[in-house]
Specification:
With 246 residues, the chain is α/β, with parallel strands linked by helices. Helices cover 39% and strands 15% of the residues. The protein has one domain (3-244): Spore Coat Polysaccharide Biosynthesis Protein SpsA, Chain A (Alpha-Beta Complex). The protein is globular, with a radius of gyration of 17 Å.
Amino acid sequence: MSNVHEKILSPEINRKGRFAFVIPVYNHAGTVAQVIRRTQALGFPVFVVNDGSTDNTRDEIKDIKDIRIIGHKKNMGKGAALMSGFAAAAVEADWAITIDADGQHYPEDALNLIAAIPSGARAIIVGTREGMVGKHVPWTSRFGRKFSNFWVRLSGGPVLSDSQSGMRIYPLPEAIVLPTRAQRFQFEVEILVQAKRKGLPVLETPVRVVYSPDGSRISHFRPFVDFIRNSLTFTRLIFTRIFSLH
């Protein structure tokens, strides 16, 4: 038995509950199969949400054994995909571990996230990406991280160093019932604010990240469009915060 599986079966991890991976996918045919297989090696159930991909994603994943595939007929956004994955995973798991399908995360770092869950507590654990410096890291990622961190705090959310990381652990069903409205990338920042407002702790722990030096990583983040959407989401959150104080 591998060291990874020995850790998975350790009493310390098992005492924290049942875990499942949720992987939202949109047009990542070139990386998703490898991400899934590395994730499966950890021994947890894997839920893959194909969010209306128009490339070869469906063919890449349809024959992978022992995964649950949830399909959206059209692209609904990362937030909608995560919520679909949460709803499916909640049937057999107490926690959802989310990772992106583009290969930037190390699935093995999920063990670090699990270890960061306080004993007997329910909390969102955000994987703070290390190595987010250098020319190989897109400027949109560096700027977006700082922009998001500032506005999450201003909106009444937690103080974090990487509020845009997609590698996280969410408690189920608590994450499902938070009053989030955003359905695309903005979901991942809004849920942090809503968690803080509802008294659900949000904690951080380091995880590794891979950015290809040649810039070959596929990202669906659109700087202008998603900047506008982020701004609208934060404006709504700030206004609701102000009104709640009166």
